Amino acid sequence: MALTSTPPNSTPPKTTGLLSAAVVVAALGYFVDIYDLILFSIVRVASLKDLGVTAQADITNEGTHLISMQMGGMLLGGILWGILGDKKGRLSVLFGSILLYSLANIANGFVQNIEQYAWLRLIAGIGLAGELGAGITLVAETLPKEKRGYGTMIVATVGVSGAMLAYWVGEALGWRNAYFVGGGLGLALLLLRVGVFESGMFEQAKQQQGVDRGNFLALFTNGPRLLKYLKCLLIGVPLWFVVGILITLAPEFGRALGVQGEVSAGLAVFWCYFGLVFGDFASGALSQLLHSRKRALQLFLLICGTVVAAYLFMLRGASPEAFYRLCFVMGISVGFWALFVTVAAEQFGTNLRATVATTAPNFARGSVVALVPIFNGLAATLGSPTAPNLVGSGAVVGAVSLLLAFWAVSTLPETYGKDLDYVEVS
């Protein structure tokens, strides 16, 4: 029997102001989340060299292994925190995830070998998986429907700037201290728990009899619902193709493109995320001004495709400064992350909303686990094991991920202004 959505009979929950405690804490939580999430990409080369990895090929291989461990942790954490978010509440996930990734990152500052590094990246990944989905869900459910896009825009704009702090701290204090700072920021954020209240929609759903909350498998028991969920996942993949491959491997791409000077992974991440600040602000505002999430996402995906092509085919022999400028523009073009999570949250009822809003971005992030071996294998096929064709592989993987994302956006229902006070029932 097909699953349908029906509104509950209870009174709609109270809504809050645009700069409520929920919005502020979600924004600051995402700030620390992004700091810790991106920190490895910034300190990858320095930390691996300090741990005794010196050959360039080994730095690339160990780096992709460690980021795959981190993203694998996010796949596991996305399911864990998503289910807990619908069963136990948005706040328990918001602060529980912050605590876990903060402790993991403090421990990361003490690692002495690659094996320890890998396991702590896995644990940190599990922790990092929960904050954004819980925060976006909480904000979406507590703000008036006409202001939801502005609330998530604030969360994203503040949050992605955490990557810039990660770069400054990593450069100034070294990679070990940068992990300590990230963990400390997360623990300090836990002090803001006072004054943040649980979502009224969640509290209402919890009181309803016969409502199955946080059933991850319910997303797979109905064809249309599963297809809608898969489309949500596909929207986020291009961002992590850009960040997880094109930006994380910026030094390798710089050499493959003949950039006239050494490209710094840290600076590439810095400029990309600086662009993301503007992109997330613009995409969120545009979705409000156009009264359409879909049109805003379609426009950004088209821009992203154009900029990725420029990165791969127009930087040959360029200066590092020109390379970083394009990283900045590419960051703007993929600045639709919070908008993507908002769309995912708005597609489903209250009893599955946190599950979707948490698993969707983490499965999209975790797509790096699949993208990396596909990218590496295709690069070796198009080139050779000793001289991989990074540019050709990047072009193919990027084109496929962008086309699938554009199809997904174009075929999903519009959710701007949608009433979210309903539950999913059979």
TrEMBL record:
Superkingdom in the source lineage: Bacteria
Entry-linked CDD domains: MFS_SV2_like
GO molecular function: carboxylic acid transmembrane transporter activity
Location(s), subcellular: Membrane
Keywords: Membrane, Transmembrane, Transmembrane helix
Ranges of residues in domain Major facilitator superfamily (MFS) profile: 22-416
Pfam families documented for this protein: MFS_1
Gene3D superfamilies: MFS general substrate transporter like domains
Leader peptide range in chain numbering: none
Chief place of localization: membrane
Transmembrane segments: 21-43, 63-84, 91-111, 117-138, 150-170, 176-196, 232-251, 263-284, 296-316, 322-345, 366-384, 390-409
Cellular component GO terms held in the UniProt record: plasma membrane
Membrane topology, from the record: Multi-pass membrane protein
Designated name of the protein: MFS transporter
Organism annotation: Hymenobacter jeollabukensis
High-level lineage: Bacteria, Pseudomonadati, Bacteroidota, Cytophagia, Cytophagales
